[in-house]
Amino acid sequence: MRELRAYYDTPAGTAKAVDGVTLTVDPGERFGLVGESGSGKSTIAMAAMRLLRPPARIEGGQVWVGDVDMMGASEDEVRRLRLAKVALVAQGSINALNPVARVRAQLLDGARDHGVRFNRREADSFVADLLEQVGLHAEVANSFPHQLSGGMKQRVCIAIAVCLRPEVIIADEPTSALDVVVQRQVMESLRAVQASLGAAVLLIGHDIGLMAQVVHRLGVMYAGRLVEVCGIREACREP
Ligand code: ADP
Ligand code: ADP
């Protein structure tokens, strides 16, 4: 994105949420965005997917996902891109799991929504592969969400999000609701999935220590501005 500017129009007036942010995440790169609450991180994530709705408003700049101009593209084109190329994982994704469907069904539904059809054997190996990618045992496929821990559920969400091998993964506070040890495990799942896909990752969070372990570059947001971007030394993180 380049020179992105976003505002919220509220009864109390217009507030600037993103103030001229320029940011590129390359394929294969994990880019972390940290900053205090209200600094504009989520607005950036939503703008990147063209999911901002009133009272939010984008007033300037460009957003590209691969070679698609997200601001100029048609609704159809954006919808297709969101389905085929971009995965969104959020803190609230756990709540969007269907409480009365087994993990297996939810993973397959994720693929079916995209028009993928499997025979039984293909479905089995698809589910097993996905679960393995996020570090879950194959037996998890037969579980209902309430039988899983928070960290396992969040990994299922990651598996659903990446079931069609997206080129871009946007993860907005994916581990905030989890305890510290589990946060690391979920981050590691995200890292492993991304590495195997070669996807570009925009990871939003507030725990700099945790983020520094998984990202290549870390950007700091302050009052709608990207005020600092630094590379994370190889020694500080896993490959
Ligand atoms: P360029 O040859 O500069 O890449 P494009 O028409 O492809 O020209 O892109 C227009 C602008 O959008 C460029 O300035 C580029 O920096 C930016 N851009 C292109 N691709 C991306 C991307 N994947 N992520 C962020 N910004 C991008
Ligand atoms: P972060 O993700 O860093 O916490 P946000 O992008 O959610 O930041 O918010 C950026 C700014 O936009 C904040 O000042 C916030 O108060 C404002 N904002 C976010 N959502 C809304 C909304 N629905 N209505 C009005 N203002 C909003």
Automatic annotation (TrEMBL):
Transport listed as a keyword: yes
Tell me the ranges covered by the ABC transporter domain, including all copies: 1-239
User: GO MF terms on file?
Assistant: ATP binding; ATP hydrolysis activity
Gene Ontology biological process terms, A to Z:
peptide transport
Q: Which UniProt keywords apply?
A: ATP-binding, Nucleotide-binding, Transport
Keyword Iron-sulfur attributed: no
Which protein family is named in the record? Belongs to the ABC transporter superfamily.
Identify this protein by name: Peptide/nickel transport system ATP-binding protein
Source lineage = Bacteria, Bacillati, Actinomycetota, Actinomycetes, Propionibacteriales
User: Which part of the full protein is shown?
Assistant: 1 to 239 of 311
